[in-house]
Specification:
seven-stranded mixed sheet, about 120 residues, four-stranded antiparallel sheet, mainly beta, about 0% helix
Length: about 120
C-alpha cells in the first residue's frame, strides 16, 4: 500500500529556513515523479515544485530561487529546502507521487508551515 509521510513543518520567522521531508513506501519510488504542493484555506492546492526520476525539476514562479526540491532514491525520500521564507509561504504542504508528469496518484497527509514574526 502506497504511503507518503511528510515531516519538517513548523513555525519560522520571515527570512528563515525550513527543510521538509517526505518518506515514501509501497511504491517503486525510483520511477515516480515527486512533487510538493501547498494549500491555504479557501484556495486551491497549488504546485510548488516537482522532480522527475532523473532529477529534472520545475518550480512555481513564486518560489524560484528560494526553494529547492531534491530526492534520495536509495532512501525513498524527497526534500523541499525552503529559504528566505515569507508570510505568504504559510500553508499546509503536501507531498505527491505520480507515474506520469502532471498526474499525481498519491498524496501525503500534509505538514503545516507557518511564517510569522
Amino acid at each position: 500500500q502506497a504511503q507518503l509521510v511528510e515531516s519538517g513543518g513548523g513555525l519560522v520567522q520571515p527570512g528563515g529556513s525550513l527543510r521538509l521531508s517526505c518518506a515514501a513506501s509501497g511504491i517503486a519510488f525510483r520511477i515516480y515523479v515527486m512533487g510538493w504542493y501547498r494549500q491555504v484555506p479557501g484556495k486551491q492546492r497549488e504546485l510548488v515544485a516537482r522532480i522527475t526520476s532523473g532529477g529534472s525539476t520545475n518550480y512555481a514562479d513564486s518560489v524560484k530561487g528560494r526553494f529547492t526540491i531534491s530526492r534520495d532514491n536509495a532512501k525513498k525520500l524527497v526534500y523541499l529546502q525552503m529559504n528566505d521564507l515569507k508570510p505568504e509561504d504559510t500553508a499546509v504542504y503536501y507531498c505527491s507521487a505520480g507515474q506520469v508528469w502532471g498526474i499525481d496518484n498519491y498524496w501525503g497527509q500534509g505538514t503545516q508551515v507557518t511564517v510569522s514574526s
